[in-house]
Amino acid sequence: MTKLAEEHQAINLSQGFPDFDTDPKLIAMVADYMHKGFNQYAPMTGIPALRSLITAKTNKLYGSDYDAENEVTVTAGGTQALFTAIATCINPGDEVIIFEPAYDSYAAAIRMHGGLVKTYEMIPSDYGIDWDIVKRLFSANTKMIILNSPNNPTGSVLSDTDMQCLIKLTKGTDVLILSDEVYEHIVYDGLKHLSIASYPELKERSFIVGSFGKVLHATGWKAGYCLGPENLMKEFRKVHQFSIFSVHTPVQYAIAEYLQDESKYLGLADFFQEKRDYFRSMLGQTRFNLLPCKGSYFQCVTFDHLSEETDVALATRLVKDFGVASVPVSAFFTRNTDHHALRFCFAKKKETLEQAVEKLMQF
Ligand code: PMP
Ligand code: GLN
């Protein structure tokens, strides 16, 4: 969709990345570390200062006890953390439960390792989970469950009830959890992000994935991390060592210094809430039907009452005829389906959102 948007000079609310600047202070820090000579390989697991920052921040926010030496690895973005965790655990024939619509890298990575994707379909408008149905997806071959809260693309978040169901469901099994929490700091209306890290029964069987691209408005830097108990992290690092080995050195130093100021991540919820509220109030004036958005920087809409065309057809027409790019939500399903919904990314400047909605009003 980004390519199509560029071809048609449309406003791009499709791919999830900010169109505003990364903090110049942070950029200056990266440049400074480069000038100071921090330009060679970083340690395989990540520089100690960044690993300590990640574990201290996680432990403080979620009451966990991760150890910086053995239980976290710095990765080339959340995507590499996800891929490496899957490569570490999934063998041919292993089954992995995912919740669709789902971020598109999960199913691809599972299949690349011979795994079988078992899907639970979340239903609009709240995209909640009926755990009794999830239970029916379990078999002797179930190896892993992948969670994503706050969720891309639906904006839904898991509740404590969900976590308790998950504890019950996995108790006494060897099932692993891969928890994609890249939007952990982007939750709205005073809601609190519930991390797997806060639940000891889940934490002991889980990898947690984070992304500095989301935290620092710098998705192109591809910096992230994976947390996990020592026994799992030890295996994760074997794959990491021989696929990536290590991650951009000056960026790691700069992030470790910059995020000493916790307002840089604790302020994200307010920062994006202003954008979400503004975008929703404007979009509410179009004919689209807005779905709830409790977290992430994505807003989904449905259009059943407006058109019978597929979401792919409508997303394409919106680019070509109206000059706005979105992502058809059917792109987040493994089965060929028309979900009849569109996802808009609102991590954009106010004027971008305003111009986009002006165009969408014409529809
Ligand atoms: N998980 C989800 C749900 C995402 O939306 C993204 C970013 N698109 C990622 C993982 C990957 O993060 P990164 O850009 O750090 O690889
Ligand atoms: N997270 C981004 C999204 O969902 C995209 C990352 C990517 O394009 N691979 O739009």
Automatic annotation (TrEMBL):
Keywords: Aminotransferase, Pyridoxal phosphate, Transferase. Coiled coil: none annotated. It comes from the Bacteria. InterPro entries: Aminotransferase_I/II_large, Kynurenine-oxoglutarate_AT, PyrdxlP-dep_Trfase, PyrdxlP-dep_Trfase_major, PyrdxlP-dep_Trfase_small. Its cofactor is pyridoxal 5'-phosphate. Residues 10-360 form the Aminotransferase class I/classII large domain. One of its GO terms (molecular function) is kynurenine-oxoglutarate transaminase activity. One of its GO terms (cellular component) is cytoplasm. CDD domains: AAT_like. NCBIfam families: PRK09082.1. Belongs to the class-I pyridoxal-phosphate-dependent aminotransferase family. This is Aminotransferase. It comes from Pedobacter quisquiliarum.
